[in-house]
Design brief:
Layout (H helix, E strand, L loop, with lengths): L2 E6 L4 E4 L1 H7 L3 H4 L10 H17 L9 E6 L5 E13 L3 E10 L2 H15 L6 E4 L5 E4 L1 H7 L3 H4 L10 H17 L8 E7 L5 E13 L2 E10 L3
InterPro entries: PAS (IPR000014), PAS-like_dom_sf (IPR035965), PAS_fold (IPR013767), Tiny_macrocysts_regulators (IPR052994)
Organism: Arcella intermedia
GO molecular function: ATP binding; kinase activity
Length: about 230
């Protein structure tokens, strides 16, 4: 059973089910009447009330109805990955309210998705990198190994910003988090030219296109690069 949390337009928790207690370690008494940000990372908690306010003022749905993976802070302070889907409702007595349905993201879903993508992308002549929502490299194809000099065994598990110049590296995780928080794609589905740093320190200008792939409760980003002539 998924965890279910109901909040009002001020972000205050009005209902939670037993599954929420089981996952978070909190009791109903702990959470009812508290702001839902108590279950969020510090970075996301600071922005959440603003997300609600903008939605109510503009009516634009950046999060409502869009499933995404987020980090949830449980009672012992641990951050766990969960898949979140939010729906908006209204009744005459209380006005608008939001229902969040959460399930723990599963590693097997990620592996299933990676296996599928490797089969498709492995034979491509252009370099391809696959990263998670944390910005961590999970796979790259032989063309990427050859072009940039990083063996897969040495780079998988590292942040993708290892391939970036300092200016871009500092901002990249923020780009991902903003996309996950708002659903607004500034880079996804668009092409642009970026500098890519090779293992030997050389920088190559590349044409980058990024797409999102989903499977059940997980999402990955696939970056395809075309090296431009010098």
């Amino acid at each position: 059973m998924n965890a279910t949390i109901v909040i009002d337009t001020n972000g205050i928790i009005r209902f939670l089910n037993q599954a929420t207690e089981n996952i978070t370690g909190y009791t109903r008494t702990d959470l009812l009447g508290s702001n839902v940000s108590v279950l969020m990372s510090q970075e996301l908690a600071a922005k959440h009330d603003g997300f609600i306010k903008r939605h109510l003022e503009t009516g634009v749905n950046h999060i409502i109805g869009i499933g995404r993976n987020v980090e949830m802070m449980v009672k012992d302070g641990t951050l766990i990955k969960v898949h979140l889907e939010v729906t908006e409702h209204k009744n005459q007595a209380d006005g608008k309210y939001f229902i969040g349905s959460l399930s723990v993201a599963k590693d097997k879903d990620l592996e299933s998705l990676l296996e599928k993508e490797r089969a498709v992308l492995g034979g491509l002549a252009v370099p391809v990198f696959i990263i998670t929502e944390d910005g961590l490299i999970k796979a790259l194809n032989p063309s990427a190994e050859k072009e940039f000099g990083y063996p897969e065994s040495k780079i998988v598990g590292k942040n993708i910003n290892i391939l970036m110049i300092k200016e871009h590296a500092r901002k990249h995780n923020t780009y991902i988090q903003n996309y996950l928080a708002t659903g607004k794609a500034k880079i996804i589905g668009k092409s642009r030219v970026v500098p890519v740093k090779c293992k030997d320190g050389k920088v190559k200008n590349c044409h980058l296109s990024v797409s999102v792939k989903k499977h059940d409760n997980v999402r990955i980003f696939v970056g395809m690069l075309v090296v431009l002539g010098n």
